[in-house]
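**User:** Everyone, produce a chain:

**Assistant:**
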Amino acid sequence: MHDHVHHHHAHPHRHALGFALLLTLGYAAVEAGVGLWSGSLALLGDAGHMVTDASALGIAALAARLALQPPSPRHSYGLGRIEVLAALLNALVMLGVVAFIAGEALERLQTPAPVQGVAVMVTAAIGLLINGSVAWVLTHGEATLNVRAALLHVMGDLLGSVAALAAGAVIWLTGWTPIDPLLALVICVLILYSTLNILREALHVMMEGVPLHMELADVGRAMAAVEQIRSVHDLHIWTLGSGRIALSAHVVLHRLSDWEQLLPQLERLLLERYGIDHVTLQPELTAQHVLRQMPYKKKD
């Protein structure tokens, strides 16, 4: 006998992603043109980031839309995990962008080129406002892994705009052009750190790992501490996608007649304390095979 509960969540963040996509794509073309004319690598790098941002935001918006599809006979959990796939793809693309910009920066350090400082400053300042607006929209939406990966691209652009603005100012005031590729390298290091974190989390979800903010043993002990329960075993916790966490477990009872009252109590505990909203539980009276499946029992 299995008991199961499942709550659905909406995805309002897809509207924020769509708005961010239009805003980013529009200014990317402007910044790329000025970057080519002025000869600024920092500005070109920022424009390159914005182009990849547009792609990243498009992928994220499409994934958020597809994640709304209901479960089907072929995909019984629905398509929620497609947002994790989108986050993984966007993080991988970002690694490519970082590698390209770093390579160009190193080459520019060896072969300096003239840069139009004033044009860089003006364009970067406008880019900073655009990126700041997009980042504000995304940070005030739902913080799914998908949105966080898209936001990573935008934050990369935000930092890139700051770097381009600073580079333009230094070149305008002093004429020292190496500041342009040096700041581009600094931004690459900062973005690389965040990208690797997103990659690690996305891969962890794809491998059906226990959510990083949660301890399996802690959840098992909390369930076993309920009065009518003898022990809990075969406990599994994983992320379905878009903040939805699933749990399955075998629950050993003193009396099977307690189960009707106990089930909603366990569901409430798991939802309120851990945010687990997709629960499948198997009640049992005996568990002779418990020892091979990490049992969680009451403390003596």
Summary: The chain has two domains: 9-206, 216-297. The chain has a mean pLDDT of 80. Strands lie at 3-6, 229-241, 244-253, 278-284, 296-297.
